[in-house]
Model the fold of this input.
Amino acid sequence: MRHPASVPVAAEASPSPPATSRSVEDFLAAGQRHNTRRSYASAVQHFESEWGGLLPAAPDAVARYLAHYAGALSLNTLRQRLAALSRWHADHGFSDPTKAPVVRQVFKGIRTVHPQQERQARPVDLGHLQAVDAWLRQAQADAAVRGDQAAALRHARDRSLVLLGFWRGFRSDELTRLERRFVEIAPGRGMSCFLPHSKTDRLGQGQTYKCPALSALCPVEALSAWLALSVEKTDGPVFPAIDRWGRLGDEPMAPTSLNLILRRVLEAAGVDAAQGFSSHSLRRGFASWARDSGWDIKELMAYIGWRDMKSALRYMDISGQDLQQRFERALAR
Done:
């Protein structure tokens, strides 16, 4: 019996990569937030250049580094330095010295010797929000009358930033990363915006956030007004930087600039001690408002996007006045 002649099989050619293909390094970089990469690089540089440490590092060296800066740097900063060193060793295939018992014990000792109370920004309340909204509306109208287009644009943008930041409970980096192509507005009903990635989105799946239209202090109306005023930009960031001539940039405004903007408009609106506020004040303010309005913790976590209860509880402080009222009601009974 004759077997059929074997037919040579041509080697399968590897498909040529498309012109726009990216390298492995590109995707590795995309898998980590830009702010995290930058802060980790700065921390590793501090360990090497400022302190004179060598990489890869031994556990004893990391422990001495912590001891050297104990008291000079906050516990949160030291914790961030450890995270950066841990990531560097993992990325380069070395064992992680930060997990060694001596490092853990030294860090525990620093917490004992240098206890630090966590500082939290003052929450923005509805009174603050009303004052800021009224001032920004008037300031925008005045700027338009005198023909100052740059100031009118900034006031409209800042009003939308503050109202959306409060009612949506966004972090500053989430606000500044919003893109026009991912925002959908239903006038009089609400809006939705999609964020491809965020701090709590560990898998990078993206998340859609919804916000209702309101009868007062409405974030949907403020955002609609801002987008209509900046109609020259049809794509790119929702909140770009604005130069002195009123030109909108192609890049989003820096997240850190939200602190300065919020303090400036609060002070202009007549709010006392405006320097005690930060971008986190909007998130904390909404959490406090939701608590006082009867939201339970699960509703708040789902709306904000918190993954663990501890994060949510940090934003839901009970004010001294609330405590006093509860005690007095109990005494009256």
